[in-house]
């Protein structure tokens, strides 16, 4: 190659540029972009906000995305704070920040894309010439996901429920497992995820990706947001993107495999729920998790729901009304070692522990 022994040339710098259809961000530059992914009924552009921070030093390209479901807000704040606070002068690599992917859903404060109720997070990698959801997914995927080396997609529980901060990841894939472990959550739920989800389709396109689930829809939950920011810094340390950060160990961790003990406890009666335990609670086999009562609170009609095994409440109902078959809580079993570690931690910080999950 001509000039290969000389000082780094413009051509070398160009190799590390982040390019997308219509633009580029060179090393040592940051850019806030509004990128068109569709058009409204009025023919106006539907544009997603994107921040690209291209570090002064070469390294991996990492995407952080949120609000594929338009009412799941916690991740928006995580991605916004990363985009605002991190500087290209500190980075070995590039950050691609996508705080709001499902713009129509976000504007309506709805989970799905409005009108046809399409799930953007079942529409990846998307396709040109297909449905509006797939076209949007395609524009996001080709421009901002495929050029990356790894990624984190932030979600919350569905409206009316809440969950502990946890990671969902295909732990059979070593690069995904490395990413999942680096995020420093207590709980990792293993599995490849449904087809059409960003994490599964990105991972299959050689961009190892995990989902982070945290809290409830329609809220900013500061403690969860801070813990997620710690997780992001830990991932960036693990992959050498930010060398001043350290990989963070959460104190204890459990990986829930597909065949491990776990269940969504469902209501067998319709009624009003009195939930006794919150997200992050450790419950013993036979312990009462909640009761379901009729409008008159008649004693004869009280349904008591007990834990079928000792475990951790990862997700739980917030809106206290159920039809038969509605989920009450997501309970996962724990190994004896994990249970001991968790109990030790809880004795130390007894009063606050549930709230901090
Ligand atoms: Zn979601």
From TrEMBL:
Gene3D superfamilies: Zn peptidases
Pfam (any one): AstE_AspA_cat
Protein name: Deacylase
Succinylglutamate desuccinylase/Aspartoacylase catalytic domain boundaries: 58-237
Cofactor(s) in the UniProt record: Zn(2+)
Record keywords: Hydrolase, Metal-binding, Zinc
InterPro entries: AstE_AspA_cat (IPR055438), N-alpha-Ac-DABA-like (IPR043795), N-alpha-Ac-DABA_deacetylase (IPR053138)
Species per Swiss-Prot/TrEMBL record: Natronococcus pandeyae
GO MF: hydrolase activity, acting on carbon-nitrogen (but not peptide) bonds, in linear amides; hydrolase activity, acting on ester bonds; metal ion binding
């Amino acid at each position: 190659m001509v000039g290969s022994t000389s000082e780094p040339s413009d051509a070398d710098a160009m190799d590390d540029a982040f390019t997308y259809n219509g633009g580029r961000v060179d090393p040592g530059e940051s850019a806030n972009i509004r990128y068109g992914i569709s058009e409204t009924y009025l023919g106006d552009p539907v544009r997603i906000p994107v921040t690209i921070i291209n570090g002064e030093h070469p390294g991996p390209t990492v995407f952080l995305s949120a609000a594929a479901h338009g009412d799941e807000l916690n991740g928006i704040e995580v991605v916004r704070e990363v985009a605002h606070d991190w500087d290209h002068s500190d980075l070995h690599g590039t950050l691609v920040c996508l705080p709001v992917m499902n713009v129509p859903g976000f504007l309506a404060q709805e989970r799905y894309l409005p009108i046809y109720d399409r799930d953007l997070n079942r529409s990846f990698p998307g396709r040109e010439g297909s449905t509006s959801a797939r076209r949007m997914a395609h524009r996001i995927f080709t421009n901002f996901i495929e050029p990356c080396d790894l990624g984190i997609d932030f979600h919350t529980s569905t409206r009316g429920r809440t969950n502990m901060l946890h990671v969902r990841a295909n732990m059979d894939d070593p690069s995904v497992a490395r990413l999942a472990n680096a995020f420093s959550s207590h709980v990792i739920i293993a599995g490849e995820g449904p087809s059409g989800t960003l994490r599964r389709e990105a991972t299959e396109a050689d961009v190892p990706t995990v989902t982070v689930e945290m809290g409830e829809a329609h809220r900013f939950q500061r403690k969860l947001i801070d813990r997620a920011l710690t997780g992001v810094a830990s991932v960036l340390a693990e992959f050498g993107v930010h060398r001043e950060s350290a990989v963070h160990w959460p104190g204890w961790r459990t990986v829930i495999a597909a065949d491990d003990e776990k269940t969504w406890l469902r209501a067998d009666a319709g009624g009003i729920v009195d939930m006794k335990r919150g997200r992050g609670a450790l419950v013993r086999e036979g312990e009462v998790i909640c009761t379901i009562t009729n409008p008159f609170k008649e004693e004869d009609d009280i349904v008591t729901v007990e834990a079928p095994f000792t475990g951790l409440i990862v997700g739980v109902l917030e809106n206290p009304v159920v039809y038969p078959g509605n989920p009450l809580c997501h309970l996962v079993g724990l190994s004896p070692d994990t249970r001991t570690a968790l109990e030790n931690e809880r004795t130390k910080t007894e009063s606050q522990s549930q709230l901090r999950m």
